[in-house]
Amino acid sequence: MKRNKQIFILSLLVAILNIFDGIATHYGLMNNFIKEINPLMRFFFEANPYLFLGIKFSLSVFIFIVSNLVILKCIKSFQRFYLYALTGISILYSGLFFVHLYWLWMSNYSF
Question: Which positions, given as ranges, span the membrane (predicted)?
Answer without folding.
Answer: 7-30, 50-71, 83-105
